[in-house]
Amino acid sequence: MEKLISGKVLEITGTLMEGVTGTNLNELVLRAIEVYNRYRSPEATAKLVRIEKDNFVIEFEGAFCLGCGVRDYFEDFICELEDLSSNFRVKIKKVEPADPQSFRVKYVVKGAISYEEALFREFLQERGLSFKEYLASNACTKDVVKFHFRTWLFERKIEK
Q1: Is the Cβ–Cβ distance between 60 and 45 less than 8 Å?
Q2: Entry pTM
Q3: CB–CB of 25/109 below 8 Å?
Q4: Within 10 Å of residue 95's Cβ, how many Cβ atoms?
Q5: Hey, what CATH class is 2-111 in?
Q6: Using a CB cutoff of 8 Å and minimum separation of 24, what contacts does 72-80 make?
Q7: Residue 52: enclosing H or E segment and its boundaries?
Q8: pLDDT digits (tens, 9 = 90+) for 19-74
Q9: Residue 112's pLDDT is what?
Q10: Distance CA 37, CA 78 (A)
Q11: Which residues contact 142 (CB under 8 A, 6 or more apart)?
Q12: What is the pLDDT of residues 127-150, one digit of tens each?
């Protein structure tokens, strides 16, 4: 099966993968690519190569900031995807150089996040924070957030 996206043919093999709650992974990956490219292009540009049953391949192209570490660009894509939906986890499986200024990265879908992590993300969202912002914060801030999360869980339990 092939799908035309932005004038390019996208190869989709196997069945269209559905997330844990029925969220279409294909649409989420394409949306994450749009967001990723909006903020990182022309330094780094992502393009979907293929989606299979439990993994997908993205080609990253550009004049990457080598001081930042090329792998950071690939991990940033995971953050963009998880900001769109917290129904599953994605992990980098393989990185291959495609050209001097491009890499093909194979991501594997690891399944659903834990109930505790889903609650933690709900807690952050209620406070106007993203999981990405939490991960970027310093250790002291993370400790304070975790403390407030435990308090929130306790208060939530009492309300029920």
Answers
A1: yes
A2: 0.61
A3: yes
A4: 13
A5: alpha beta
A6: 73/40, 73/44, 74/103, 74/105, 76/36, 76/40, 77/32, 77/33, 77/36, 77/46, 77/105, 77/107, 78/107, 79/131, 79/132, 79/135, 80/32, 80/35, 80/36
A7: none
A8: 333 347 888 899 999 999 999 998 899 999 999 878 999 999 998 877 778 888 99
A9: 67
A10: 13
A11: 134
A12: 988 877 888 888 889 889 999 999
Write phi, then psi, for 121 (nearest 5 degrees): -65, -35
The 10 Å Cβ neighbour count of residue 138 is 7
Interstrand relation of 89-99 and 102-111 (parallel, antiparallel or unpaired): antiparallel
What confidence tier does 119 reach under pLDDT thresholds 50, 70, 90?
confident
Compare 150 and 121 and report the one with higher pLDDT.
150
pLDDT at 12 over 70: no
Contacts of 138 (CB under 8 A, 6+ apart): none
Q: Which tokens go with 121?
A: 């993300």
- Any idea what DSSP says for residue 66? T
Could you read off the pLDDT of 96-108 as tens digits, one per residue?
999 889 999 999 9
Residue with tokens 């986890």: 89
Contacts of residue 57, Cβ cutoff 8 Å, sequence gap at least 6: 48, 49, 50, 51, 104, 105, 106, 107
